[in-house]
Amino acid sequence: MGWALGDGYTGEKERRMARWGMVIDLARCVGCYACMIACKEEHFLPPGVFWGRLLVTETGKYPRVRKVSIPVLCNHCEEAVCVKVCPTGASARRKDGVVTVDSHKCEGCRCCVVACPYQQRTYLREKNKEYFPAQGLTEFERIGQILYPHEARSVTKCNFCAERIDDGIRKGLKPGLDREATPACVNMCMVKARRFGDLGDPDDPVSVLIRERKAHPLRPELGSKPSVYYID
Amino acid sequence: MKPYEWMVRYTAQTEWVRGGGLCIWLSFFAGILGSGSYLVSLYFNSATGALVSWLVIVALKGGLHIADARKPLGLWRMVFGVRTSWIARGMGFTICLALFGAIQLFLSYESPGSSFETLFKALTGIAAAAVLLYEGFTINSIVGIPFWNSGLLPATLMSWGIFQGLALVGFVGSQADGEKTLGAGNAVFLAVTVVLTCLYFWNAAYAGATSKESVKEILIGRLGLLFWIGTVAIGFAAPGFILLSGYDTDPVARATLFVLEALGCLSFTYGVFRAGLYSPLV
């Protein structure tokens, strides 16, 4: 079985389109923030910009209070409102379901940021914001500006590590199983709370997990059909 | 707010009211004012009113969009998403209004009463109505903010547009015999705007917990002072008083009326933008 490149089809033998998605097991998540940090490191994200977050809150009332940690990221919705509202076509949904932003086309109107009901998009105001103000950019930040430049006054968001997926598929690897083709946050999760795979394949581990563990997306009532599922 | 507190409680929309986002809010205001007054100018056949309205649309609204754009020369891309994006449609309607308006103003000056002038008046009127309509639909289409996702919002904003438009045309002068009707129209639209604003808040208060929270923010929360002073006292009560006492004769009263109504609309739109809350994710 082959897997799809961003805008293409699957391998020669079976021409099926993949639809990438993620399952997050909340019972396994220990709230270590490793996914958040891995994402920041992978994409050289500037200060204050998070493509993935770990939300921490409490449920219940004293004395029965429970701390809840929920990792969130762009849901790569099938009915992505951010794509619909984008006037320039900078936000687009690839054929493999990954929602991307072309920062060269982005005019910075922030319609997509406002429209996203999950608030997982960030408008990048400044380009050279330093992690250590008035001390200049670190070597890591300088390298990041060359390897993974972010355009100022444009919108940025999680892209499911599309570069890793595409490169991995070119090398014949399977995203979700082979680390090199799998998003950084999934690789970094030490308790294996995150699983990545093809939602279009009923035999893929993520599809099996969704089916058997009754995984659900966040706020399904919005009708955006997210590709990120949660197991309670 | 810490990164881990993001969206765990009601989170306010800030992108269109913070920093450069203020340009987007002001361009909304300029769009409502310019298109509303253009429609009123066409109805009352006021060339001066049409010219001022056209300037509001082109110089103020256009200027604010250019000021906020990342690459002003790339703004033409913003009409690409016309099939699904209200902001793209709005840009298209605004460009039509600017172009048709320029031709209509030229024809009104060069050959008034000609069939071409009538044709372009009709085209400009349609474009102005579309701009006035899209302003509300641009924010109404955002399902993530329940307070905005109400059918009454576009109607309320349209009413604000006509209400201010009547004051602006009354201020800059009307050529036709509509001087008396301007005052009466303003009083009628003051009442309509008050009713629609109340209905919008009342409807929003029963549209779910998040929407109710937004209404509370505006009426008794951090935006309460702005709403009661800016919108109610300056935008509704003071114009009402002026309309009851000598609007038809006093030019200073007309200028004051327009300024008050514009301030009221600024306050109302800012309050609505600031009170846009997202429901918590957890």
Short description:
The complex is a heterodimer of chains A (232) and B (282). With 232 residues, chain A is α+β, with helices and mostly antiparallel strands.
Question: How would you explain this protein's 3D organization?
Answer:
The complex is a heterodimer of chains A (232) and B (282). Chain A is an alpha+beta fold and 232 residues long. Chain A has one domain: Alpha-Beta Plaits, CATH 3.30.70. In chain A, 22% of the residues lie in helices and 20% in strands. Chain A has helices at residues 34-42, 81-85, 111-115, 139-147, 162-170, 184-188, 205-212, and strands at 20-25, 52-59, 66-73, 91-93, 99-101, 121-124, 154-157, 194-198, 216-217, 228-231. In chain A, the strands form four sheets. In chain A, strands 8-1-10-9 form a four-stranded mixed beta sheet. Chain A has a two-stranded antiparallel sheet with strand order 2-3. In chain A, strands 4-5 form a two-stranded antiparallel ribbon. Chain A starts with 19 loop residues before the first strand and ends with a strand. Chain B has one domain (12-278): Up-down Bundle (Formate dehydrogenase/DMSO reductase fold), CATH 1.20.1630. Chain B is 71% helix and 1% strand. Chain B has a two-stranded antiparallel ribbon with strand order 1-2. In chain B, helix 5 packs antiparallel against helix 9. The two termini of chain B are 16 Å apart. The model of chain B has no long low-confidence stretch (mean pLDDT 91). Chain A binds chain B through residues 36, 50, 53-57, 68, 70, 72, 81, 83-89, 105-111, 113-119, 123, 125, 151-154, 218-219, 222, and chain B through 3-9, 11, 13, 15-16, 19-21, 24, 68-71, 74-75, 77-81, 84-88, 91, 141-145, 276, 278-279, 281-282.
